[in-house]
Amino acid sequence: MAAFPVGRRSPGDADNHAPDGDPPTVCRWASICRAAAGEAAFWRGYPALLLTFLLGQAAPQIDLALLARSPDGAVAAYVVVVRLALLETVATMALGSVASVAASRAAASGSAASEVRGALWLAALAGGLFTLAGALAYPFALPWVAGGDAGVGAMAAAALPWFIATTPIRMVGGTAAFLLHAAGRGGLAIRWKLMELAARAAAGVLIVDRMVPGAAGCFVAALLVSVPSAVWAVAALRLYARDGGPPDRVWLSVRLRAAAWESQRLLSFHLLGLVTLALFASPLGGGGRERLEAYASVSVMVLALFAPLVAQLRFLAMRLAGRPAADVAVMVRTRLAWGMAVGSMAGLMLAMAGDGLGRWGYGQEGRWWSALVCALALSVPWRVVGNMLRAALQATGGFVGVARADGLFGWLCGLPLTALGLWWDRPALAAGTLLVPEIVAVVWLWSRLARAARTAAGDSTTMRAQSTVSVAGR
Questions:
Q1: Most buried of the four, 148, 284, 351, 432, by CB within 10 Å?
Q2: 48 Cβ neighbours under 8 A, 6+ residues apart
Q3: Domain residue extents for the chain
Q4: What pTM was estimated for this model as a whole?
Q5: Among the listed residues 227, 211, 208, the one whose alpha carbon sits nearest the alpha carbon of residue 166
């Protein structure tokens, strides 16, 4: 009987011989393993950044748990004070976003020290300005935000000075957290936040229960813990920025412009949510509490998606920073299918669990809830892909384009759909506000990234041609 090559089946051994040594199969598995290993290396650091975001959201939950045993109105007073600082919260996120991308880009050229130092100076300066603005404006805005409730207003007024005093510490600490991740010290940032949370909980129990009750006690505890915490974070970052003074005026102008555009993008998102909520609460199309409660519940669900999506955006912007636009476009393009697949799986899971979540988690059911959850589930893959494109543009300095897209399409596409759906009592049409603007944004962002890549490639070709002519001339 003639011998068969290794890995091939003989006609009489079809059921007893497996193709363990088939070279094409081995090559395919090796290629898959190499691709998986490369992808895992690319995303190294994302879990740490996501965990940092989640830990940051845990601090208010600790405060609310402490206030559960406080007198009536304490929780409302806490929320009123926090809502007063919407602009500060937006500015802190914007400064951290711009600082982390700039520091990652500078690290590629070996000049990260000046970026880290300048970002900390800018955060301290912005914190001082917001402290002054808060001291002047918050007392006048407090009665309006409190809604005329004298008891809640009095408790919020007692807590306000402590909250304002912590403003520069919050802004410096928030920027420092982004910079630690940009420096590749995500593990250190997690340990820092874990220790800060533990200290915050211990101080809160001691102060709120025994010394300063109510919302004021929470902000006193936050001040006592955040000061040494921020000092430690700045000291850790000084390893990357030991020398030098404040940044120059040109540097400040460039960074403030990028931060202003990012702030406008984030603020537009918050304002659009408030206007949409007001439309659902309005008597447009007959009104009804069912649709308002359904939208409010879905809004809370969107916040649950906020942390992983924002962490994805920030991580990719830092990872891609410092690379040519053409290379960034290629790196993102090769991962779009993966992003769409992961987002589709997450969206499918959300759609399948929607009715159960509504019934047991939010106390919601009916056509408005079903339509909104379905639209949100369909939007998840588009949001994942959209954040990949946003990160690519921000990594190459395109904060302006991203801000224009996010600030425009939600108002032009989403808001009219909401109004028409409410007016005609069509839940599916109104729910389009969660899906259609993101699809339009993805198409626009993709065209913008492709244009930037073509421009960068053309500039590179021109430079090479000029270099060749120069060499030939010699």
A1: 432
A2: 181, 186, 187, 189, 190
A3: 44-247, 276-461
A4: 0.79
A5: 227
